[in-house]
Amino acid sequence: GQNIDQPTEMTATEGAIVQINCTYQTSGFNGLFWYQQHAGEAPTFLSYNVLDGLEEKGRFSSFLSRSKGYSYLLLKELQMKDSASYLCAVRDANYQLIWGAGTKLIIKP
Amino acid sequence: ETGVTQTPRHLVMGMTNKKSLKCEQHLGHNAMYWYKQSAKKPLELMFVYSLEERVENNSVPSRFSPECPNSSHLFLHLHTLQPEDSALYLCASSQEYGRAADTQYFGPGTRLTVL
């Protein structure tokens, strides 16, 4: 079967750095997405990786290793507003999106 | 601000009621999606429409009935639901279904409670 694994919950301190991991086992690979979802709100697109390596967008970076079936989302200079759930999703060989259950990130002052 | 709107935001219904969820996208996209989101579970894809034609129906019970009258609007008609159907129902749209980098944009969801 196809599977996406993410930690259920993480806690970090304001101003610090946190890395949220995502591992996947899918039938083929056509890219990996990260979304942010604040409680009671819509998931919003953060990043899309299809090639190995690190992509940076401001305070957020996303890394992909296709050979290891692994990605991470790196958040720097954490702010209280970064408290949210972070969803990892992989597009498989049939172009279906396989979703993880999400990681709830709690930021403490 | 999202280009995808959903109404109502909250809905409480009995098991014998009939109700409809509405989604509208203002992004000029060609594909629209219904998802079910339950606590601590992955998003469950329910239906996909591309250019107003249904292209996916992922073993969803017949008590859920989608309708896509045009590329900007999507409905989910509900009847004789069960308490386990209580969840957040998310609508999404994307530019072109079936493309690897095609990004989905979500509405804020309808929080459904079935009594």
Feature tags:
A: 109 residues; six-stranded mixed beta sheet; B: 115 residues; mainly beta; seven-stranded mixed beta sheet; four-stranded antiparallel beta sheet
Describe the structure.
The complex is a heterodimer of chains A (109) and B (115). Chain A has no helices and eleven strands. Chain A has strands spanning 3-5, 9-13, 18-25, 32-37, 44-49, 53-57, 60-65, 70-75, 84-91, 97-99, 103-108. In chain B, 0% of the residues lie in helices and 56% in strands. In chain B, strands 2, 4, 5, 6, 9, 10 and 11 form a seven-stranded mixed β-sheet that branches. In chain B, strands 1-3-8-7 form a four-stranded antiparallel β-sheet, with no helix packed on it. Chain B starts with a strand and ends with a strand. In chain B, 34% of the residues are buried.
How do the strands and helices of this protein lay out in sequence?
The complex is a heterodimer of chains A (about 110) and B (about 120).
Chain A (H helix, E strand, L loop, with lengths): L2 E3 L3 E5 L4 E8 L6 E6 L6 E6 L3 E5 L2 E6 L4 E6 L8 E8 L5 E3 L3 E6 L1
Parallel strand pairs in A: 2-11
Antiparallel strand pairs in A: 1-3, 3-8, 4-5, 4-9, 6-7, 7-8, 9-10, 9-11
Chain B lengths: L3 E4 L2 E4 L4 E8 L5 E7 L6 E7 L2 E5 L6 E7 L2 E7 L7 E8 L10 E2 L3 E5 L1
Parallel strand pairs in B: 2-11
Antiparallel strand pairs in B: 1-3, 3-8, 4-5, 4-9, 5-6, 7-8, 9-10, 9-11
